[in-house]
Amino acid sequence: MVFQVKLFKSGNEFSVDESETVLDAALKHGYVIPYSCRSGSCGACKARIVSGRVDYGDYAGDTLTDADHAKGIALLCQARPIEDLVVDAREVAVSQEIEIKMLPCRVSHLEKLNHDVMLMTLKLPANQQFTYLAGQYIDMLLRDGRRRSFSLASAPRDGGELELHVRRVPGGFFTNQIFNTMKERDLLRFQGPLGTFFLRQDSEKPVILVAGGTGFAPIKAIVEMAIEEKNTRPIHLFWGVRAEPDLYMNDLAGRWSERYDHIEYTPVLSEVNADSGWTGKVGWVHEAVVEQYPDLGGYEVYMSGPPPMIEAGSAAFLEHGLSDQCLFFDSFEFASDVPQG
Ligand SMILES: Cc1cc2nc3c(=O)[nH]c(=O)nc-3n(C[C@H](O)[C@H](O)[C@H](O)COP(=O)(O)OP(=O)(O)OC[C@H]3O[C@@H](n4cnc5c(N)ncnc54)[C@H](O)[C@@H]3O)c2cc1C
Ligand code: FES
Protein backbone atom coordinates (compact mmCIF):
# COMPACT_ATOMS: atom_id res chain seq x y z
CA MET A 1 0.00 0.00 0.00
CA VAL A 2 1.03 3.60 -0.54
CA PHE A 3 0.27 6.41 1.91
CA GLN A 4 0.47 10.21 1.61
CA VAL A 5 2.55 12.25 4.03
CA LYS A 6 2.05 16.00 4.35
CA LEU A 7 4.64 18.19 6.07
CA PHE A 8 2.71 20.41 8.50
CA LYS A 9 4.63 23.70 8.11
CA SER A 10 5.43 23.76 4.40
CA GLY A 11 2.44 21.79 3.13
CA ASN A 12 4.85 19.71 0.98
CA GLU A 13 3.52 16.23 0.27
CA PHE A 14 5.06 12.94 -0.77
CA SER A 15 4.06 9.29 -0.99
CA VAL A 16 5.44 6.49 1.19
CA ASP A 17 5.34 2.84 0.28
CA GLU A 18 4.40 0.67 3.28
CA SER A 19 7.88 -0.92 3.15
CA GLU A 20 9.64 2.46 3.52
CA THR A 21 10.33 4.65 6.51
CA VAL A 22 9.00 8.21 6.41
CA LEU A 23 12.60 9.49 6.33
CA ASP A 24 13.67 7.34 3.36
CA ALA A 25 10.59 8.40 1.40
CA ALA A 26 11.15 12.09 2.20
CA LEU A 27 14.79 11.89 1.04
CA LYS A 28 13.78 10.00 -2.10
CA HIS A 29 11.40 12.84 -2.98
CA GLY A 30 14.01 15.53 -2.28
CA TYR A 31 12.73 16.73 1.13
CA VAL A 32 15.55 16.89 3.68
CA ILE A 33 14.54 16.33 7.31
CA PRO A 34 17.18 16.34 10.10
CA TYR A 35 18.69 12.88 10.68
CA SER A 36 21.95 11.25 11.66
CA CYS A 37 22.31 7.54 12.63
CA ARG A 38 19.30 6.11 10.71
CA SER A 39 19.23 3.31 13.29
CA GLY A 40 16.84 4.65 15.94
CA SER A 41 19.62 5.49 18.40
CA CYS A 42 20.39 9.21 18.28
CA GLY A 43 17.01 11.02 18.24
CA ALA A 44 18.04 13.52 15.52
CA CYS A 45 14.99 12.61 13.38
CA LYS A 46 12.32 13.12 16.10
CA ALA A 47 9.15 14.72 14.75
CA ARG A 48 5.51 15.08 15.86
CA ILE A 49 2.81 13.08 14.14
CA VAL A 50 -0.01 15.64 13.92
CA SER A 51 -2.54 13.19 12.46
CA GLY A 52 -2.59 9.58 11.30
CA ARG A 53 -0.99 6.49 12.83
CA VAL A 54 2.50 4.99 12.43
CA ASP A 55 4.29 1.78 13.28
CA TYR A 56 7.05 3.22 15.49
CA GLY A 57 9.58 0.56 14.38
CA ASP A 58 12.70 -0.53 16.29
CA TYR A 59 14.67 1.92 18.36
CA ALA A 60 17.01 2.03 21.34
CA GLY A 61 14.86 1.98 24.52
CA ASP A 62 15.64 5.47 25.76
CA THR A 63 15.57 7.27 22.39
CA LEU A 64 11.80 7.81 22.65
CA THR A 65 10.65 8.58 26.19
CA ASP A 66 7.14 8.26 27.66
CA ALA A 67 6.89 12.05 27.40
CA ASP A 68 7.73 11.81 23.66
CA HIS A 69 5.02 9.16 23.19
CA ALA A 70 2.50 11.35 25.01
CA LYS A 71 3.27 14.20 22.58
CA GLY A 72 2.93 11.92 19.54
CA ILE A 73 6.63 12.09 18.71
CA ALA A 74 8.13 9.40 16.45
CA LEU A 75 11.56 8.69 14.97
CA LEU A 76 11.15 9.27 11.25
CA CYS A 77 14.10 6.97 10.42
CA GLN A 78 12.09 4.06 11.89
CA ALA A 79 8.42 5.07 11.58
CA ARG A 80 6.31 3.51 8.82
CA PRO A 81 2.82 4.87 8.11
CA ILE A 82 -0.30 2.82 8.75
CA GLU A 83 -2.52 5.68 7.51
CA ASP A 84 -2.02 8.95 5.64
CA LEU A 85 -0.03 11.30 7.87
CA VAL A 86 0.53 14.94 8.70
CA VAL A 87 3.98 15.34 10.24
CA ASP A 88 5.44 18.37 11.99
CA ALA A 89 9.12 18.03 11.02
CA ARG A 90 11.73 20.71 10.45
CA GLU A 91 12.78 20.85 6.80
CA VAL A 92 16.42 21.62 6.06
CA ALA A 93 17.22 24.06 3.24
CA VAL A 94 20.00 22.57 1.11
CA SER A 95 22.02 24.81 -1.20
CA GLN A 96 22.49 22.17 -3.92
CA GLU A 97 20.85 18.97 -5.02
CA ILE A 98 22.36 16.00 -3.25
CA GLU A 99 21.86 12.55 -4.73
CA ILE A 100 22.39 9.54 -2.45
CA LYS A 101 24.32 6.94 -4.49
CA MET A 102 25.89 3.50 -4.11
CA LEU A 103 29.44 3.70 -5.49
CA PRO A 104 32.56 1.57 -5.72
CA CYS A 105 35.88 3.06 -4.59
CA ARG A 106 39.50 2.07 -4.09
CA VAL A 107 41.54 2.57 -0.94
CA SER A 108 44.22 4.99 -2.13
CA HIS A 109 46.08 5.68 1.12
CA LEU A 110 46.25 4.33 4.66
CA GLU A 111 48.21 6.13 7.36
CA LYS A 112 48.16 5.75 11.14
CA LEU A 113 47.67 9.19 12.71
CA ASN A 114 48.18 7.91 16.26
CA HIS A 115 47.76 4.67 18.25
CA ASP A 116 44.08 4.20 17.32
CA VAL A 117 43.18 6.52 14.44
CA MET A 118 43.76 5.69 10.76
CA LEU A 119 43.59 8.17 7.93
CA MET A 120 41.99 6.36 4.99
CA THR A 121 41.52 7.99 1.60
CA LEU A 122 39.23 6.61 -1.08
CA LYS A 123 39.42 7.16 -4.80
CA LEU A 124 36.27 7.12 -6.93
CA PRO A 125 36.03 5.85 -10.51
CA ALA A 126 36.98 8.65 -12.93
CA ASN A 127 33.53 8.68 -14.56
CA GLN A 128 31.60 9.09 -11.28
CA GLN A 129 30.36 12.40 -9.89
CA PHE A 130 29.97 12.49 -6.12
CA THR A 131 28.54 15.67 -4.59
CA TYR A 132 28.28 16.16 -0.83
CA LEU A 133 28.10 18.89 1.75
CA ALA A 134 30.97 19.35 4.21
CA GLY A 135 30.01 17.47 7.40
CA GLN A 136 28.07 14.61 5.76
CA TYR A 137 28.98 10.94 6.13
CA ILE A 138 29.00 7.72 4.09
CA ASP A 139 28.04 4.15 4.92
CA MET A 140 30.69 1.59 3.97
CA LEU A 141 28.82 -1.44 2.60
CA LEU A 142 30.28 -4.71 3.85
CA ARG A 143 30.10 -7.92 1.78
CA ASP A 144 27.50 -9.49 4.09
CA GLY A 145 25.10 -6.52 3.81
CA ARG A 146 26.18 -4.83 7.04
CA ARG A 147 27.11 -1.14 7.03
CA ARG A 148 29.52 1.07 8.92
CA SER A 149 29.20 4.88 9.01
CA PHE A 150 32.16 7.26 8.65
CA SER A 151 32.20 11.03 8.24
CA LEU A 152 33.88 12.66 5.27
CA ALA A 153 36.81 14.59 6.71
CA SER A 154 37.65 16.94 3.86
CA ALA A 155 35.77 19.69 2.04
CA PRO A 156 34.27 18.56 -1.28
CA ARG A 157 36.57 19.17 -4.24
CA ASP A 158 35.97 18.29 -7.88
CA GLY A 159 37.55 14.92 -8.56
CA GLY A 160 39.09 14.94 -5.08
CA GLU A 161 39.61 11.84 -2.98
CA LEU A 162 37.45 11.16 0.07
CA GLU A 163 39.19 11.33 3.45
CA LEU A 164 38.04 9.34 6.49
CA HIS A 165 39.39 9.27 10.07
CA VAL A 166 38.74 5.81 11.48
CA ARG A 167 39.06 5.05 15.19
CA ARG A 168 39.84 1.42 15.94
CA VAL A 169 37.06 -0.01 18.13
CA PRO A 170 38.33 -2.77 20.45
CA GLY A 171 36.82 -5.98 19.04
CA GLY A 172 35.19 -4.02 16.21
CA PHE A 173 34.67 -6.05 13.04
CA PHE A 174 35.30 -3.47 10.32
CA THR A 175 37.65 -1.02 12.01
CA ASN A 176 40.02 -3.89 12.89
CA GLN A 177 39.97 -4.99 9.25
CA ILE A 178 41.07 -1.47 8.33
CA PHE A 179 43.94 -1.59 10.84
CA ASN A 180 45.03 -5.20 10.28
CA THR A 181 44.34 -6.49 6.79
CA MET A 182 43.23 -3.67 4.49
CA LYS A 183 45.72 -2.58 1.85
CA GLU A 184 46.04 0.28 -0.58
CA ARG A 185 44.17 -0.49 -3.86
CA ASP A 186 41.57 -2.67 -2.10
CA LEU A 187 38.11 -2.28 -3.58
CA LEU A 188 35.17 -1.16 -1.37
CA ARG A 189 31.57 0.03 -1.83
CA PHE A 190 29.73 2.77 -0.04
CA GLN A 191 26.43 4.62 0.04
CA GLY A 192 26.23 8.37 0.49
CA PRO A 193 26.30 11.19 1.12
CA LEU A 194 24.13 10.90 4.23
CA GLY A 195 23.12 13.03 7.20
CA THR A 196 22.26 16.65 7.84
CA PHE A 197 25.33 17.64 9.84
CA PHE A 198 26.41 20.62 7.72
CA LEU A 199 26.71 24.34 8.33
CA ARG A 200 23.34 26.07 7.94
CA GLN A 201 23.87 28.79 5.34
CA ASP A 202 20.73 30.76 6.23
CA SER A 203 22.18 32.03 9.52
CA GLU A 204 24.79 34.59 10.50
CA LYS A 205 25.03 33.45 14.13
CA PRO A 206 28.50 32.73 15.49
CA VAL A 207 29.27 29.02 15.43
CA ILE A 208 30.57 26.76 18.19
CA LEU A 209 31.96 23.45 16.90
CA VAL A 210 32.38 20.66 19.44
CA ALA A 211 34.32 17.53 18.46
CA GLY A 212 34.92 14.40 20.54
CA GLY A 213 37.75 12.10 19.31
CA THR A 214 37.26 11.31 15.60
CA GLY A 215 34.23 13.62 15.75
CA PHE A 216 36.93 16.00 14.52
CA ALA A 217 36.50 14.49 11.01
CA PRO A 218 33.24 16.17 9.86
CA ILE A 219 34.22 19.33 11.71
CA LYS A 220 37.49 19.48 9.77
CA ALA A 221 35.46 19.33 6.54
CA ILE A 222 33.16 22.13 7.77
CA VAL A 223 36.08 24.40 8.72
CA GLU A 224 37.92 23.71 5.44
CA MET A 225 34.77 24.55 3.50
CA ALA A 226 34.20 27.79 5.45
CA ILE A 227 37.83 28.81 4.75
CA GLU A 228 37.51 27.93 1.06
CA GLU A 229 34.29 29.93 0.74
CA LYS A 230 35.89 32.89 2.59
CA ASN A 231 33.01 32.70 5.07
CA THR A 232 34.09 34.85 8.03
CA ARG A 233 31.32 33.85 10.46
CA PRO A 234 33.03 33.54 13.85
CA ILE A 235 33.90 29.91 14.63
CA HIS A 236 35.09 28.56 17.98
CA LEU A 237 36.24 24.93 17.77
CA PHE A 238 36.47 22.88 20.97
CA TRP A 239 38.11 19.44 20.56
CA GLY A 240 37.73 17.07 23.50
CA VAL A 241 39.86 13.92 23.82
CA ARG A 242 41.26 11.77 26.61
CA ALA A 243 45.00 12.50 26.31
CA GLU A 244 47.26 14.73 24.18
CA PRO A 245 48.19 12.06 21.53
CA ASP A 246 44.45 11.76 20.75
CA LEU A 247 44.57 15.29 19.27
CA TYR A 248 45.76 13.68 16.05
CA MET A 249 45.55 16.91 13.98
CA ASN A 250 46.24 19.42 16.72
CA ASP A 251 48.77 21.33 14.58
CA LEU A 252 46.26 21.80 11.77
CA ALA A 253 43.59 23.15 14.13
CA GLY A 254 46.22 25.39 15.75
CA ARG A 255 47.22 26.77 12.32
CA TRP A 256 43.60 27.67 11.51
CA SER A 257 43.34 29.82 14.60
CA GLU A 258 46.76 31.44 13.98
CA ARG A 259 45.94 32.28 10.36
CA TYR A 260 42.30 33.36 10.60
CA ASP A 261 41.08 35.99 13.06
CA HIS A 262 37.53 34.58 13.02
CA ILE A 263 38.60 31.04 14.05
CA GLU A 264 39.40 30.16 17.65
CA TYR A 265 40.57 26.71 18.83
CA THR A 266 40.43 25.16 22.31
CA PRO A 267 41.65 21.59 22.85
CA VAL A 268 40.36 19.95 26.04
CA LEU A 269 41.85 16.84 27.71
CA SER A 270 39.83 14.72 30.09
CA GLU A 271 42.86 12.93 31.61
CA VAL A 272 46.12 14.72 32.39
CA ASN A 273 49.21 13.34 34.15
CA ALA A 274 50.75 15.76 36.61
CA ASP A 275 54.11 15.58 34.72
CA SER A 276 52.68 15.99 31.19
CA GLY A 277 53.36 19.73 30.92
CA TRP A 278 49.83 20.33 29.55
CA THR A 279 48.75 23.92 30.26
CA GLY A 280 45.46 23.89 28.34
CA LYS A 281 41.91 23.08 29.40
CA VAL A 282 41.16 19.94 31.41
CA GLY A 283 37.78 18.27 31.96
CA TRP A 284 34.77 17.43 29.79
CA VAL A 285 34.59 19.34 26.55
CA HIS A 286 30.96 20.47 27.05
CA GLU A 287 31.93 21.95 30.42
CA ALA A 288 34.69 23.98 28.77
CA VAL A 289 32.13 25.32 26.29
CA VAL A 290 29.60 26.49 28.90
CA GLU A 291 32.36 27.89 31.12
CA GLN A 292 33.34 30.23 28.29
CA TYR A 293 29.80 30.72 26.90
CA PRO A 294 27.39 30.69 29.86
CA ASP A 295 24.68 32.24 27.64
CA LEU A 296 24.40 30.37 24.33
CA GLY A 297 21.26 32.27 23.26
CA GLY A 298 22.92 33.93 20.25
CA TYR A 299 24.90 30.90 18.95
CA GLU A 300 24.62 27.82 16.76
CA VAL A 301 26.30 24.67 18.12
CA TYR A 302 27.46 21.77 15.91
CA MET A 303 28.63 18.71 17.81
CA SER A 304 29.98 15.33 16.63
CA GLY A 305 31.47 12.37 18.44
CA PRO A 306 30.61 9.63 20.93
CA PRO A 307 26.99 9.30 22.10
CA PRO A 308 27.70 10.12 25.79
CA MET A 309 29.32 13.41 24.76
CA ILE A 310 26.34 14.28 22.54
CA GLU A 311 23.88 13.52 25.35
CA ALA A 312 25.77 15.47 28.01
CA GLY A 313 26.50 18.35 25.63
CA SER A 314 22.92 18.66 24.37
CA ALA A 315 21.51 18.81 27.92
CA ALA A 316 24.11 21.36 29.09
CA PHE A 317 23.82 23.63 26.04
CA LEU A 318 20.01 23.75 26.13
CA GLU A 319 20.21 24.56 29.85
CA HIS A 320 22.55 27.43 28.96
CA GLY A 321 20.05 29.10 26.64
CA LEU A 322 20.80 27.42 23.28
CA SER A 323 17.67 27.12 21.13
CA ASP A 324 16.95 23.53 20.10
CA GLN A 325 16.62 24.89 16.54
CA CYS A 326 20.31 25.90 16.73
CA LEU A 327 21.71 22.56 17.94
CA PHE A 328 22.99 20.16 15.28
CA PHE A 329 24.78 16.88 15.92
CA ASP A 330 26.13 13.62 14.53
CA SER A 331 26.20 11.00 17.26
CA PHE A 332 28.75 8.27 16.45
CA GLU A 333 26.40 5.39 17.30
CA PHE A 334 27.47 1.84 16.44
CA ALA A 335 25.72 0.08 13.62
CA SER A 336 22.70 -1.96 14.69
CA ASP A 337 23.46 -4.45 11.88
CA VAL A 338 19.84 -4.23 10.75
CA PRO A 339 19.80 -4.00 6.93
CA GLN A 340 18.74 -0.57 5.61
CA GLY A 341 17.67 0.51 2.17
C1 LIG B 1 26.79 9.23 11.44
C2 LIG B 1 28.00 8.52 11.98
C3 LIG B 1 29.28 8.98 11.62
C4 LIG B 1 30.40 8.31 12.12
N1 LIG B 1 31.63 8.79 11.77
C5 LIG B 1 32.74 8.20 12.27
C6 LIG B 1 34.04 8.70 11.92
O1 LIG B 1 34.20 9.65 11.15
N2 LIG B 1 35.11 8.08 12.48
C7 LIG B 1 34.98 7.02 13.34
O2 LIG B 1 36.01 6.52 13.83
N3 LIG B 1 33.77 6.53 13.68
C8 LIG B 1 32.65 7.08 13.15
N4 LIG B 1 31.42 6.58 13.49
C9 LIG B 1 31.35 5.39 14.36
C10 LIG B 1 31.64 4.15 13.51
O3 LIG B 1 30.56 3.98 12.60
C11 LIG B 1 31.78 2.90 14.39
O4 LIG B 1 32.86 3.06 15.25
C12 LIG B 1 32.02 1.70 13.51
O5 LIG B 1 30.79 1.37 12.87
C13 LIG B 1 32.51 0.51 14.31
O6 LIG B 1 32.55 -0.58 13.39
P1 LIG B 1 33.21 -1.98 13.77
O7 LIG B 1 32.71 -2.97 12.76
O8 LIG B 1 34.67 -1.86 13.93
O9 LIG B 1 32.60 -2.28 15.18
P2 LIG B 1 31.42 -3.36 15.53
O10 LIG B 1 31.87 -4.72 15.14
O11 LIG B 1 30.15 -2.81 14.98
O12 LIG B 1 31.39 -3.20 17.09
C14 LIG B 1 31.79 -4.17 18.02
C15 LIG B 1 31.38 -3.71 19.40
O13 LIG B 1 32.19 -2.58 19.76
C16 LIG B 1 31.39 -1.56 20.35
N5 LIG B 1 31.47 -0.35 19.52
C17 LIG B 1 31.24 -0.25 18.19
N6 LIG B 1 31.41 1.01 17.74
C18 LIG B 1 31.77 1.74 18.81
C19 LIG B 1 32.06 3.12 18.99
N7 LIG B 1 32.01 4.03 17.98
N8 LIG B 1 32.40 3.52 20.24
C20 LIG B 1 32.44 2.65 21.27
N9 LIG B 1 32.16 1.32 21.16
C21 LIG B 1 31.83 0.87 19.95
C22 LIG B 1 29.99 -2.10 20.45
O14 LIG B 1 29.79 -2.65 21.74
C23 LIG B 1 29.93 -3.16 19.43
O15 LIG B 1 29.01 -4.16 19.76
C24 LIG B 1 30.26 7.19 12.98
C25 LIG B 1 28.99 6.72 13.32
C26 LIG B 1 27.87 7.37 12.82
C27 LIG B 1 26.50 6.85 13.16
S1 FES C 1 17.28 8.04 15.62
FE1 FES C 1 16.64 8.49 13.59
S2 FES C 1 18.42 9.35 12.69
FE2 FES C 1 19.12 8.71 14.64
Q: How would you describe this structure to a colleague?
A:
There is one protein chain. The protein is globular, with a radius of gyration of 20 Å. The two termini are 18 Å apart. It has a six-stranded antiparallel beta sheet with strand order 11-10-13-8-9-12. A six-stranded parallel beta sheet has the order 17-16-15-14-18-19, sandwiched between helices. Strands 2-1-7-3-5 form a five-stranded mixed beta sheet. The chain folds into three domains: 2-88, Roll (Ubiquitin-like (UB roll)), CATH 3.10.20; 101-194, Elongation Factor Tu (Ef-tu), domain 3 (Beta Barrel), CATH 2.40.30; 207-331, Nucleotide-binding domain of ferredoxin-NADP reductase (FNR) module (Rossmann fold), CATH 3.40.50. It has 341 residues and is an alpha/beta fold. Helix 6 (285-292) runs parallel beside helix 7. 19% of the residues lie in helices and 30% in strands. The model has no long low-confidence stretch (mean pLDDT 94). The structure holds flavin-adenine dinucleotide and FE2/S2 (inorganic) cluster. Flavin-adenine dinucleotide binds next to strand 11, strand 12 and helix 3. Residues 36-37, 137, 148-151, 165-167, 169, 171-175, 195, 214, 217, 306, 330, 332-335 line the site of flavin-adenine dinucleotide (FAD).
